[in-house]
Specification:
Length: about 525
């Protein structure tokens, strides 16, 4: 560092922070040029030398907002002078008439004097105010913790769950807050309080975690806990109680039975028309038509038979069926309808893409976050097979230009395939990376893999790896759609595999500029 006093003074005057020093009698001994940028009605900074801090504060008054003077001028002056007291570390915000907000920090030096730093924090305070208003209006309970794991802000719903006023939570550590909640007896826990706290802390220290919290009054909350880019944490509580869900589902199912029959018949007619269109295409389309007919006979007729069969049973045996049996049949009808509509929607999406009528709504999306969100949808399914879904290679901040709903469907399709075909005790890995102006999203597994001879074929419509009876879990359109959507975005889709050594799928999309 240069020891030239002139160069040092020039550097201080170039700062975008006002720097002032006061002697032991609180008289100004130095101020840099930025002070006049913050206070536009003050005399030039060099003319203020020798004035007391009290006098300078009173010179500021024409620029001070009424909100800062609500308790009177003398109270305002006393508050400002209090910053010069020993060990008065807290910064002070001062609002100006033009809407700006200044933060003033003061520290005593070793000679009885003080150094004050003045910073324009208008943008930061407005951003924080908007965040607080947004979470206040949310139907979920929100809490944010800083990089020291101390509570920063939250909404009233979180304060209710914590059983403590919001203002009393500020600055407290996450561990102290959950410890108080557990020992208050407001939660239903199945282990010792210390064990529950230890488990919750383990989840809290992961990159992302989800847990279920039960209260003694019968409510259930999904708790999602995620690291933020600045090293802090965001915690969200969603009410998932749904006390009347079963009754509502039964009533909706009964009203939907006739509609389901009509819709099934209508969709069957649509498939017949689609088959006729395929029959008029090229040789490749002729082969696709054959595969479609085979798929219809096995995959499409199965859910249709379930829908019609179980709805007939419910109509015939309605007077003798108990609620549990009705729920079971309704669930089977719903599953059959879901599978059918998934296949039909895939066919319709391919038709739109082929005709050039699929409109994307592209916007910048965080690729790593999309993979993390999709991972949560399959944690339960993977856990049932003791499969680990590793998303540690999914950093936050890699922005791709994509349609959010389409990208979500692409990623979910690949993770679903990986979890479905990976053997018990296997592993699925998710990754996001950036290179040469493109963003890649990778889903790989250590499952049985695909033979080299099948790799190009499985990207074609209605194709499956190996024997259809052994491998087909749908219409064979999932990978075809992923490739079509990737190319529609101006990217590409590639698969790699060696039989017996796992499967790797890579989506490449343009990065957001």
């Amino acid at each position: 560092m240069s020891s030239d006093p002139v160069q040092l003074l020039d550097g201080l005057h170039a700062l975008r922070v006002a720097v002032t020093t006061f002697d032991a009698q609180a008289r100004l001994t130095f101020a840099n040029a930025h002070l006049n940028h913050l206070y536009r009605l003050l005399p030039p900074y060099h003319q203020l030398i020798g004035h007391t801090y009290d006098e300078i504060i009173r010179m500021e008054l024409p620029e001070i907002a009424p909100a800062s003077l609500k308790d009177g001028i003398e109270a305002f002056v006393d508050l400002r002078m209090g910053q010069l007291a020993p060990r008065a570390w807290a910064p002070l915000d001062v609002r100006l008439l033009d809407g700006r907000i200044l933060e003033i920090k003061a520290r005593r030096d070793g000679h009885g004097g003080a150094i004050l730093l003045w910073t324009d924090v208008t943008h930061e305070r407005h951003q924080f105010s908007r965040l607080e208003e947004a979470i206040r209006l949310s139907a979920d309970a929100f809490a944010f913790y800083d990089n020291r794991d101390c509570f920063v802000t939250g909404n009233d719903l979180y304060a209710v769950l914590a059983g403590t006023p919001l203002v009393a939570l500020r600055g407290r550590s996450f561990e102290s807050i959950i410890t108080e909640i557990v020992h208050s007896g407001r939660l239903t826990i199945d282990v010792a309080p210390e064990d529950w706290i230890a488990r919750r802390l383990r989840g809290h220290r992961q990159q992302s975690s989800a847990d279920t919290l039960l209260t003694v009054d019968g409510k259930a909350f999904l708790v999602r806990d995620c690291a933020t880019p600045d090293g802090g944490r965001a915690v969200v509580f969603t009410d998932i109680t749904e006390k009347t869900r079963a009754e509502d589902a039964l009533a909706k199912t009964q009203r939907a039975l006739e509609h389901t029959r009509h819709e099934a018949a209508r969709q069957t007619g649509y498939l017949s028309d689609l088959t006729m269109r395929l029959d008029q295409a090229s040789a490749e389309a002729d082969n696709a038509k054959t595969m479609l007919l085979r798929t219809m006979s096995h995959e499409l007729k199965t859910p249709l038979n379930a829908i019609l069969g179980f709805s007939d049973l419910m109509a015939t045996l309605a007077d003798n069926m108990g609620p549990d049996q009705i729920r079971e049949y309704a669930g089977l009808i719903h599953q059959g309808g879901t599978n059918l509509f998934k296949m039909l929607n895939q066919i319709m999406d391919l038709t739109k893409i082929s005709a050039g009528r699929y409109d994307l709504k592209k916007l910048p999306l965080d690729a790593g976050s999309m993979l993390w969100l999709a991972r949560e949808n399959y944690v339960t399914k993977a856990s049932a097979k003791h499969i680990i879904i590793d998303a540690d290679a999914c950093p936050v901040g890699l922005m791709a230009m994509a349609d959010e709903s389409v990208l979500s469907a692409m990623v979910n399709a690949l993770i679903d395939n990986a979890v479905t075909f990976t053997q018990r005790g296997g592993r699925v890995e998710l990754a996001a990376a950036s290179t040469n102006g493109m963003v890649t999203l990778t889903v790989s597994d250590n499952g049985p893999g695909v033979a080299a001879s099948d790799l190009s074929r499985i990207l074609q419509p209605f194709e499956h790896a190996g024997k259809v009876a052994d491998h087909a879990k749908g219409a064979g359109l999932g990978l075809t759609l992923v490739r079509a959507f990737a190319e529609l975005h101006g990217g590409q889709f590639e698969v790699e595999s060696v039989a017996g050594e796992g499967f790797k799928a890579v989506i490449t999309l343009p990065a957001a500029s």
